[in-house]
Every structure is written in C-alpha cells, then in structure tokens.
C-alpha cells in the first residue's frame, strides 16, 4: 500500500491513550478490580452497597463503552493493505456503484487536490448543478499519491489510492512531460481493471465541471462513448477529435479487450499521449473486428474551452481543455461556475440571453487534453 494514513493513525493512537491512560491506566484498572473483589467478598454488606453506589462501577462501565469508538477510530482495511489492491478496489467500487454497477471515476494528484485548486471547483459544480448533487454518492476519487488520498478522505466518501510502483505523481504535471504520460497510461490500465470487475463507468477529468446528469444523454447502443475537443456533428464519424478526459464505457468483453489493445498500443507509439494513440488505433481493423461500438459525444452537451457548448439549457459538462497551466485552468473553471450561477439565477424567459464568458485566461488553440 502506497498510502499509510498519518491522520487516522494519529487519531487512533490518541484515542487509545485517552482510554487506557497508558500502562498506568492498566495498573489502575487492575487495582480497581482487586478492590472490587475484596469489597464483594470480605467487607460487610453495607460497605459494599455504599461502594457500588459511588464511582468505581460507573467508571468501569464508561470505560467499556469507550472501547468501541477506539476500534472504529483505528485504521480501516482500505488504509492498511490487508487483502491487496484488488479486493480494496472491489470494495470501494461496490460502495459507490449505482444499482446497475455504474460508477463515476476521476483521478487526482496532489497539486490538483489542494484547497482552492481543481478538486474543490469540481466538487462545487456537483453541488450547484441541476440534480447533480446526488451523483456525488457514486463518485470514486482515485488518488495517484499519498497527499491526494489524504485530501480526498477529508472531503469525500469514496476514495481509492492507486498503487504505482516507484512513480511519483504528486507534482503539477505539464502536458506531455514524461510524468504526465505515465500518469495517463496508468489511468488507461486502471480503467481496464474496473471494466474487468464488471463495473461500467463515466470517467471524468477533475478539470471538468458538471452541471447536469449526463446519463440520460448517452447513446443506448454505444459501448465506448467519448467527449470531443471538436465535434463534427456526427456521433459515428471517426474523424471526430476525441478527448479522453470524459468517457462513458459499459463493461463487456468488447470494451475490456478494447482497453487492453489501447494500452498495449502505447508500445508501438512511444512518447504519445493516450488520446493520440486512440486516434491512431480508432481505424485499426482489429477494433472493427472486436465489434466495440464507439460513439462521439456532442460538444453541445459535453463542451469545453476548445469548443464551448452553445446552449446552457442543455449543457451537462464543461472541460478546461485547450488550456495550459494550473492557474489559468482554475481561473476559467471559476468563470464557468460563475456563468452557471448567473444562468440559474435568471427567470426562465431570460435564460437564453446568458452565454459563457470563457475562455478568458486560456487560449482557444488545441493544446492540452
Ligand atoms: C445505469 O443506470 C442509469 C440510471 O438509471 C442509466 O442511465 C444507465 O444507462 C444504466 N447503465 C447501464 C450500463 O445499464
Ligand atoms: C437550447 O436548448 C433548449 C432546450 O432543449 C431549446 O429549447 C432551445 O431552443 C435551445 N436554444 C438554442 C439556441 O439552440
């Protein structure tokens, strides 16, 4: 396990000390027990009665009750890797899944998890969106480092620490650096693992703000549905420019094999982003042979800074894509939330007059996923 929990351990140790009072506490308890024994056996009834009526019995009862929170405060199984990553993942997914085994997943590193950073705006969007708050019950935040995991546990219910042998994903990852690529590919492999467990998912980058529930808007016949930087208008057009930051994937044998193939294809395309490899393989005859049904999602519903949704009455999500630099991303995500609040506050007849004020701090060029 990569992420021992300093917070939980500290809390548990403190509780332990309070309850037992350390070794001294044990000695005191033993002495109390001996006294009680003597009181019951050797002393006259009156004295026993008096003794019981006062403190010691009460103290013992209270101590017994206090032992329960101590056990709850101890590190839980998902902090201490008792039964391996696989079982831990299963348990977290199960806890967050909708009735039909669908989860919402995002991956997080330390730089994006800090207060005032991307994670805060992401979670805020679910709370200000139209019926999106309850979707938080189905969101699993997958942390790529210890700091992000600790932060997740402070602000969210479903957190999973992804173990990644020897790679530090904690810093701000700029587009196309080696660390960024490793992080992206680890994500593809992880998503394959989730599909193999039988869970369908909506994967969302954390720099995407959610305003409406996307589920009713997915194609009923699509296995793999992905958002686009630019949408040609045709969901079946392979020349659409997909963006791996948002995808809805049903768990079935076709999608599992598709993810396997996609991950393996990185070796044939060294130095390429998962998105570029996807573009390279989307026309591969093997993908057609697999029979995985690919659909491209409209930017009208799933927009971004590359191509903002033009209709705020329909938009589900907005992505801070086409934007380099954490500070710029944060500024434009903030602006999107402001635009949304302005839209929600207006009476119905005036809503059509509101449109996005973004991009403000980010460039419109296709630069970043
Ligand atoms: C799961 O349930 C949601 C909400 O009812 C629905 O929109 C979605 O299509 C379902 N997914 C699958 C894989 O059946
Ligand atoms: C935006 O979407 C709403 C709801 O679907 C629709 O009534 C309206 O005509 C759309 N506006 C534009 C400009 O397309």
Automatic annotation (TrEMBL):
Q: Which residues cross the membrane?
A: 34-51
A Gene Ontology cellular-component term: Golgi membrane
Biological process (GO), any one: cell wall organization
Q: Where in the cell is it found?
A: Golgi apparatus membrane
Q: Which InterPro entries match?
A: At1g28695/At4g15970-like, Nucl-diP-sugar_transferase, Nucleotide-diphossugar_trans
Which GO molecular function terms does the record list?
A: glycosyltransferase activity
Topology in the lipid bilayer: Single-pass type II membrane protein
Q: In this protein, which residues make up the domain named Nucleotide-diphospho-sugar transferase?
A: 135-333
Q: Which domain of life is it from?
A: Eukaryota
Q: Quick one: where is this thing mainly located?
A: Golgi
EC nos: 2.4.2.-
Any one Pfam family here would be: Nucleotid_trans
Keyword Cell wall biogenesis/degradation attached: yes
Q: Quick one: where's region Disordered?
A: 1-24
Presence of keyword Flavoprotein: no
Q: Which keywords label this protein? A: Cell wall biogenesis/degradation, Glycosyltransferase, Golgi apparatus, Membrane, Signal-anchor, Transferase, Transmembrane, Transmembrane helix
The record's comment on protein family reads: Belongs to the glycosyltransferase 77 family.
Quote the protein name from its UniProt record. Glycosyltransferase
Q: Which organism is it from?
A: Dichanthelium oligosanthes
């Amino acid at each position: 396990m990569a992420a021992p929990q300093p917070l939980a351990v500290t809390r548990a140790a403190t509780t332990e000390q309070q309850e037992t009072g350390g070794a001294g506490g044990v000695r005191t308890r033993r002495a109390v027990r001996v006294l009680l024994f003597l009181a019951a056996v050797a002393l006259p009834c009156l004295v026993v009665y008096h003794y019981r009526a006062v403190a010691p019995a009460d103290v013992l009862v209270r101590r017994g009750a206090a032992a329960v929170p101590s056990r709850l405060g101890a590190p839980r199984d998902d902090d201490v890797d008792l039964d391996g990553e696989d079982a831990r993942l299963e348990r977290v997914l199960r806890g967050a899944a909708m009735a039909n085994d669908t989860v919402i997943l995002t991956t997080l590193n330390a730089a994006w998890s800090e207060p005032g950073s991307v994670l805060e705006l992401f979670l805020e969007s679910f709370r200000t969106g139209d019926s999106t708050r309850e979707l938080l019950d189905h969101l699993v935040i997958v942390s790529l480092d210890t700091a992000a995991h600790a932060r997740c546990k402070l602000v969210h219910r479903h957190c999973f620490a992804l173990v990644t042998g020897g790679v530090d994903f904690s810093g701000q990852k700029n587009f196309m650096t080696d660390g960024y690529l490793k992080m992206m590919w680890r994500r593809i492999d992880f998503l394959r693992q989730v599909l193999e467990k039988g869970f369908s998912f909506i994967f969302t980058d954390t720099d995407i703000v959610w305003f409406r529930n996307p589920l009713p808007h997915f194609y009923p016949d699509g296995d793999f549905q992905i958002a686009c930087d630019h949408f040609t208008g045709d969901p079946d057009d392979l020349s659409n420019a997909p963006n791996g930051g948002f995808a809805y994937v049903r768990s079935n044998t076709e999608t599992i094999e598709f993810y396997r193939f996609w991950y393996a294809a990185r070796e044939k395309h060294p130095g390429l982003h998962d998105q570029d490899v996807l573009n390279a393989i989307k026309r591969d005859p093997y993908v057609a042979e697999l029979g995985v049904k690919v659909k491209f999602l409209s930017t009208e519903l799933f927009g971004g800074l590359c191509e903002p949704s033009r209709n705020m009455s329909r938009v589900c999500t907005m992505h801070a894509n086409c934007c380099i630099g954490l500070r710029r991303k944060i500024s434009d995500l903030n602006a999107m939330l402001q635009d949304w609040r302005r839209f929600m506050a207006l009476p119905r007849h005036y809503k059509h007059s509101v449109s996005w004020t973004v991009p403000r701090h980010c460039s419109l060029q296709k630069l970043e996923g």
